[in-house]
Amino acid sequence: MRRKPEHQAGSSDPVNANKKRAERPADASARQSYSSILINLGKYLLLIVIIPPFLNYASLQREGQMLLPKDGQMVDVGLGQKLHLLCKGRGKPAVILDAPTGMSSDVWIHVQEKLSSLTKVCTYDRMGLGFSKRLMQNETTGTEKVWGASTTGRMVDDLHRLLQAAGIATPFMLVGSELGALNSRFYSHIHDAQVSDLVLIDPIPEDIFEEDQWKEYWYGKLLPSLQARQFSAATGLSRLLIILGAIEPLLKGENVSEEVIQRQKYLLSNPAHQSSAVDEHYFMNESVAQVGDITKFKPLSSRISVSMLTGDSFDEQMPQHLNQMVAEHQKRFLKESYPSANHVHIKGADRRMIYKKPSAISQHLWKLVSQRQAGPQSE
């Protein structure tokens, strides 16, 4: 009985073979189309990642020269460091304004403009903020061996060399807000012969960072938001959001010049400025510890008048229990550190009073300057 011949290897059904040959080009075409889509998508993503930071960097280089305040000056304070200083008006005592944590000197524009008709008023940018460039990591001033970068001790050393280099007459009046208040306190205790009056606007008490709830807010909520802003500036996203109107300058309104508004946009897009703002917040705990140590080591001279200005709350955007906590610590700190100080309450204000309630600050400073000018120190 004969067996049926087996199908020989290599043989195929002509119909199926033709069908497979027809499918192969279709599969290849689909794979090629899919690969093309991936490649194009990769190109677009690459453009998105590279182009905005590049354009932002190019714009920052141009704006850094154009937006430098015309009346300002870059002062060589020695040791490879230059700080931006802006003085207006004439007279004595000079008033030195130190900005809040992570902010440039522009926040003082209203106060400086008003008070400069009475006396000389100076603002400055701390290292890394505004137009005071930050030293590179391989550069050094030597002071970080004693005081870490972005801490009060280092800032006061910078300020002391700045005022000496600029030839600011002493004694002068020191006015500081938040971190600026810490700096002003530190300076007044160390260089008491150079200071006539100390004005603290919403100062941060040293022992506030002993509170777990405050540390959780500061390092768990506030700092991450600033780090996100820094990342946004570094990637060029901030500039895009400013163009789209999603981010607005801090200072705005009819009384704010277009030049100041453009400077605020420049700083929002500047990763170097935002990085320094993050560092000032990050090292705040160390700064308050430095001030606490120095005030115990060297009490304030009795001839320096002290006043503290606070609003209804420290920050109206903070939870109420945290505002109450800050207020209690501020009162206790003032009673223990400066018992003879004058505590002034600004109704309807918080820590933004510098640019939202500038007239209240100007009135208080005007009164203090007038009193000094009427006395023997004005001669």
Q: For the record, what is the CATH homologous superfamily label?
A: Alpha/Beta hydrolase fold, catalytic domain
Rg over C-alpha atoms, rounded to the nearest angstrom? 30 Å
Extract low-pLDDT stretches: 1-5, 7-11
Write the CATH architecture name.
3-Layer(aba) Sandwich
Number of domains: 1
CATH top level? Alpha Beta
Which fold name corresponds to the CATH topology? Rossmann fold
What does the average pLDDT come to?
86
Shape: globular
Pattern of helices and strands = HEEEHEHEHEHHHHHEHEHH
End-to-end span in angstroms? 137 Å
Task: Output the strand order for the largest sheet.
Answer: 1-2-4-3-5-6-7-8
Major β-sheet annotation: 8 strands, mixed
| Relative helix content | 40-55%
Contiguous helical run count: 12
Describe the structure.
The structure is a single chain. By secondary structure, the chain is an alpha/beta fold. It has a single domain, classed as 3-Layer(aba) Sandwich (Rossmann fold). The protein has twelve helices and eight strands. It has helices at 14-66, 109-115, 152-166, 179-190, 212-234, 237-244, 258-268, 271-282, 284-297, 320-337, 353-356, 358-374, and strands at residues 73-78, 81-88, 95-98, 121-124, 172-177, 195-201, 305-310, 342-345. It has an eight-stranded mixed beta sheet, sandwiched between helices. A hairpin with a 2-residue loop joins strand 1 and strand 2. Helix 2 (109-115) runs parallel beside helix 12 (358-374), helix 3 (152-166) packs across helix 4 (179-190) and helix 4 packs parallel to helix 9. The longest helix has 53 residues, at 14-66. The chain is globular and about 90 Å long. The protein starts with 13 loop residues before the first helix and ends in a 5-residue tail after the last helix. Mean pLDDT is 86; it is low at 1-5 and 7-11. It holds the Pfam family Abhydrolase_1. Residues 102-218 form the AB hydrolase-1 domain.
